[in-house]
Structures are given as structure tokens and as C-alpha cells.
Amino acid sequence: EQPQAVKDTLAAYVKEGKIDFSEGGLDWKELKEVTRFYFVACGSAYHVSLVAKNVIEDLTEIPVECDVASEFRYRNPKLQEGGMVVVISQSGETADSIAALRLAKEKGLPVLSIVNVLGSTIARESDHVLYTCAGPEISVATTKAYSCQLAAGYIFSLLLAKAKGKISKEETRSLTEELFLLPGKIQQCLSFDQEILPMAKELKDADNIFFLGRGLDWAISMEGALKLKEISYIHCESYSSGELKHGTISLIEKGSPVIGLLSQEELAGKSISNIHEVRSRGAKCFAIRMEDITIEEEDFAHNLIVP
Ligand code: F6R
Q1: Which of 279, 219, 174 has the alpha carbon at shortest distance from 64?
Q2: Which of 2, 40, 91, 126, when mutated, tests ligand 1's pocket best, judged by the most ligand atoms within 8 Å of its CB?
Q3: Cα(4) to centroid of ligand 1, in Å?
Q4: pLDDT at 272
Q5: Is the C-alpha dihedral spanning 108, 128, 20, 67 positive or negative?
Q6: Which letter does DSSP use for residue 63 in this model?
Q7: What is the pLDDT of residue 17?
Q8: Whose CA, among 54, 99, 128, 194, lies 20 to 30 Å from 305?
Q9: In the chain, count of helices (H) and strands (E)?
């Protein structure tokens, strides 16, 4: 269902090629004045916020802070006037996220939520709501809702960049068109069973699996690690490629499985040098990479190319 869910979410906010959030009660002028965003969420939704932070800061230069909702509510956060709190939640009923929303409102900040369930508590109590169109998320492990939250996050970032005058009409159009290619690319990934199966067979008896990534790849790998441990019961963690050497590398031994995410050309060289570090300690490495990122095949036991 992921391709359709993502397509529906994009289509809900892009009308005749133009981004339109008016249904969510989001006023263009209000958005333009926001000086800082505070994203608050739990689990997979928190991982989405880390992607949104990267994209918003890159496109708009507006600072974005991300908090795990259960920490936010207990750390007496300092929220600046002019800021906006963004709560991301599939169910709209997660207790820590609701508490964070109420705290933000107490502190006088407007709250925008990205929610999947219509009329849920978070949707009702927020000033603005961007609904994702994932439909009922039956699986305990969020999958299509996560993808839809990412899609909503990207559209929101584009609108923001446009409101702030940071990207031109043409750039907005071309990036929006690019987003609409996603459902087809997701569909392609869903047909990769033949490529994934041998990799899964090699990983199924592992006690520990490590994910490595930088930037956006790190944010995405956190979700990979969460999903993998949640549904396979194999212990799995994600590390930022550059941080691994500050302690965790001591866990890497002969045969330790390491999955490297390589999707950003400008960071790939650095990430690959971290792969070499773990390889020199005997790790068995797997790559999930974009086609245009070149690797030395012998560095990886398997490498999965995503569109
Ligand atoms: C992981 C997962 C959880 C949720 C988290 C937040 O697969 O589903 O980590 O993302 O519990 O739930 P929502 O989005 O409903 O607030």
C-alpha cells in the first residue's frame, strides 16, 4: 500500500502543481514569520523529524530542534517566541506526544501536527493539522505511515522554503515533480525480494546488527534499525558513521554485520572510509546505496541498489 499511500499524501497538498496547505488551516503569512521549529515525536515519527530537520535547515536556514516527546515533557524546554512546535504522530494518541503538545500550548507556542488519524486527540488540540493519507495502520510496526510522514515533511519543507523566498517557483516545481516520482520508486523497491532474500539469509542468525549512515542516511538508518529489531527480535543499532570510532567500534569483530546506507553523493566518500574501518576489524558489510554512488564491490558481501 505504500506507493498509493504516499501518492495520496502528496496529492492532498499539491493541487495543479502548486503546494496548498490551506485545508490544514496553515496560513502562508503565519508560516513566513516562524523563526524556529521544535519537532516533537516518538519512535519512528521522531526519526521522521530528524529527516525534516535536515531538509528544512538545508532549504530554509531556519533552525530546527528535534526532541523525543518523552524527554521534551520532562526537560523544561526553552521555547523561543516566534517558534512553532510540530508534533508528528500516526495515531494522534501517543501519551508523551500529547503531553508535549499541551506543554507547548501552555508556553504559548502555536502547534502544527502531522497526524494520520482523523479527529484524534493530537489533531483536535493542534492549531493546524496536516493529515497524512496512509489509511488505517494495522501493523504494530509503522511502515506506510512512516513513509507518508516523510512525504508530508518534504512537502512542508518545500512550502516553507517558498514562503521564506529561499527557492524559486521553478525550483519548487521541479522538486515537487521529483517527489511525485517517489510512489513509482517505492513500487520498484517492493519488488526487490530476489535481491533482499540472500542478504536476509546471511543476517538472520546474527545476534547484533549495526547500521551506519551520515546525515540523512543516519536518520533513515535509525528507522531501519528500529524496524529490524522490532520485527526480527535481532538486536540492532544505528550509529552515525563518524561517531562509531568513539567507543562502539570495539564491538565490531570478525563477521559482525554492518549495513551501510549510501544515498548522498557528497557524503559517500566519508561513509565508505568508515566502512573500511569496520572492514579492517573483520566486519561483514552490506550496502544499501543509490546507483550513482560508486563502491568497491569487494568491500561488501551484498549491495542493494535503490532507485
Ligand atoms: C515503530 C513504531 C513506533 C511509533 C511510535 C509513535 O515501528 O510504530 O515507534 O512510531 O510509538 O507512535 P505515533 O506515531 O502513533 O505517535
Answers
A1: 219
A2: 91
A3: 21
A4: 94
A5: positive
A6: -
A7: 82
A8: 54
A9: 12, 12
